[in-house]
Design brief:
With 378 residues, this protein is of the alpha+beta class. Helices cover 31% and strands 17% of the residues. It contains 11 helices and 16 strands. The strands form 4 sheets. Strands 1, 2, 3, 4, 12, 13, 14 and 15 form an 8-stranded antiparallel β-sheet that branches. It has a 3-stranded antiparallel β-sheet with strand order 5-11-8. A 3-stranded mixed β-sheet has the order 10-9-16, with no helix packed on it. The longest helix is centred in the first third of the chain and has 21 residues, at 18-38. The protein is globular, with a radius of gyration of 21 Å.
Length: 378
Amino acid sequence: MLISALPFAAQSLPAVSAGQYQANDQTRQLIRQIMLEQRIPGLQIAVVKDGKIVLSEAYGLANVENGVIASRETRFPLNSATKAFTGVAIAQLAQQGRLDLDAPASRYLDDLPATWKEVRVHQLLAHSSGLPDILDANGLLGGGSEAQAWTAVSALPLEATPGQRFTYNQTNYVLLARIIARQSGMPYERFLATGQFSAAGMARTTFGDSYDLIPDAATMYSLAPRTTDAPDRPQRLSHWFYDMPPSLWAGGGILTTADDTARWLVALSGDQLLQQAARQRMWAPERLADGRAGPWAGGWPVLRASPDLQVAGIGGARSAFVVYPERGVAVVVLTNLVGANPQQFIPRIADFYARDASAPGHERVALARQQRTVVAGP
């Protein structure tokens, strides 16, 4: 695999401080190192600092077998990080007075099983609903169609009393998509397109999976052994396919770019998508029945609650973004390798920018001139 050259395309950046310029350089070095160590074929990164995108680059290959270079236009799947967008959509409806987060989901969905009727909207968002999962180890429950899977899961009892415990599952987000469609008067994907994608300037963002014919989509890979491999066979890169039917889009259907995701984070933190109070509630950890803070907020995993709040979107073990509101920093890393787990090395990148210090005016001018040169090469 040709990773040693690590071709990349960079963004012409605004004037930055000496600290940010150094942080960008440290980030580039770290990304190259990690890609080589983990054998990541292709990667995009974008960094937001104080409401501005200060770094945006693409590295490696979007498709290994055909030598297609990853660019900033390449689309990568967010997979479960899509849930953060669903969380924003629900918060927008609540902000508009069209939804009560504390209300039972049955207020908005009149066809729920009787045993599910007390589950609250905020419990769906934070995976504390106690509902059974519409997915099992083989995909959709029962191995049939979306409709058959829904029939199967709706016949199952609750696995826990609502609010009692955290249990990650996709049924929660199937229901949230239905609530969004019901309360907005439009399909889930259209509500996101109008209320978030257009508002944030996300021209490269769409929905689908690896079976769909999506222009400029990165090919997904894995180093995991195949079931037919001998136990001692060395790791090899193989295709990875994932199926994301429309009924599951709210839990994992977005394909996008690091640029688009960074624009969305800028808009979100800048009150363009949500007012501060709604955003703070969305990022507050869900309290379980015994008073403990659960690991999720309103569609977002909470990596750290206090001090130094850290909320994330994490998907498919290959894509992640982490927001550090108190630092004014957000980092997006999208890859096409299952098992890359960028959420594990994003904190190292964020630390580079947390240490930023302002440079004298003449130094910022000099750095700006350097930054306006589009970089390409090793």
